[in-house]
């Protein structure tokens, strides 16, 4: 597949939601490249806030008094430069993928001050359309009017395998990489927390097209989403 030219085309918003390790980010990034759209990784935004809370030394305090996170997110700057994620001007692309961040991001992202602050940022980034945005509440909260809503799913074991391979690639000697059973348990717990949180829980929008990626490779799932996107650009349903 080749990247499409934007000239003379109707630009749309593509919202891709789903649980952890369902392939959202990779799919969204590749689809954006094919469409000539801007890719916005909202998961990286929540991970960046989580990293800031951890580095502030206030994680335990925020657990006791969640409202204290408001002071940390006030005035926070999160920007994207290519594949780099900048937190207050600092490149944190690698740090936000650490397991210490993965363990805390569900809690931090459940806090209303965090979601409210990032909601404004995300809606501003998507203004004008021509974007692909992935997360857990893009189609239900951030852009419920997105022309194309995708909901990716996969069984927990398969998602744990993907996460394991991803972590091994970053640490060839296997240092600090949790075993498969630990990762699967963490994913199941993350699913539970995401589905039950009070603010913007993970759920499928009624209009979303569900794709089970358990038995699909990345090229196949990208092709499916790309085909849907082209149809929507052309006024299809």
TrEMBL record:
Gene3D superfamilies: P-loop containing nucleotide triphosphate hydrolases. Keywords: ATP-binding, Cytoplasm, Kinase, Nucleotide-binding, Transferase. InterPro entries: Cytidylate_kin, Cytidylate_kinase_dom, P-loop_NTPase. ATP binds at residues 18-26. One of its GO terms (biological process) is nucleobase-containing small molecule interconversion. One of its GO terms (cellular component) is cytosol. It catalyses: dCMP + ATP = dCDP + ADP; CMP + ATP = CDP + ADP. Pfam families: Cytidylate_kin. It is found in: Cytoplasm. Residues 14-225 form the Cytidylate kinase domain. Its main location: cytoplasm. Its EC number is 2.7.4.25. GO terms for molecular function: ATP binding; dCMP kinase activity. Belongs to the cytidylate kinase family. Type 1 subfamily. HAMAP family: Cytidyl_kinase_type1. This is Cytidylate kinase. The lineage of its organism: Bacteria, Pseudomonadati, Chlorobiota, Chlorobiia, Chlorobiales. The gene is cmk.
């Amino acid at each position: 597949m080749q990247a499409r030219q934007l000239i003379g085309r109707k630009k749309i918003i593509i919202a891709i939601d789903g649980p952890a390790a369902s392939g959202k980010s990779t799919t969204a990034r590749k689809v954006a490249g094919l469409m000539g759209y801007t890719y916005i990784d909202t998961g990286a935004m929540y991970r960046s806030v989580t990293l800031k809370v951890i580095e502030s030394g206030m994680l335990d305090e925020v657990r006791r008094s969640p409202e204290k996170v408001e002071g940390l997110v006030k005035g926070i700057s999160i920007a994207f430069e290519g594949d780099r994620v900048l937190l207050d001007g600092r490149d944190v692309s690698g740090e936000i993928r650490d397991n210490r961040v993965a363990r805390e991001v569900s809690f931090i992202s459940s806090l209303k001050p965090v979601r409210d602050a990032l909601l404004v940022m995300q809606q501003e980034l998507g203004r004008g359309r021509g974007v692909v945005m992935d997360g857990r509440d893009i189609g239900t909260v951030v852009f419920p009017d997105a022309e194309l809503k995708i909901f990716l799913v996969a069984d927990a074991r398969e998602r744990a395998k993907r996460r394991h391979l991803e972590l091994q690639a970053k640490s060839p000697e296997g240092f600090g990489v949790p075993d498969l059973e630990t990762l699967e348990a963490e994913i199941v717990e993350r699913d539970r927390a995401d589905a039950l949180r009070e603010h913007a829980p993970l759920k499928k929008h009624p209009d979303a097209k569900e794709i089970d990626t358990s038995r699909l490779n990345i090229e196949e799932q990208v092709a499916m989403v790309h085909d849907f996107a082209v149809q929507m650009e052309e006024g299809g349903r």
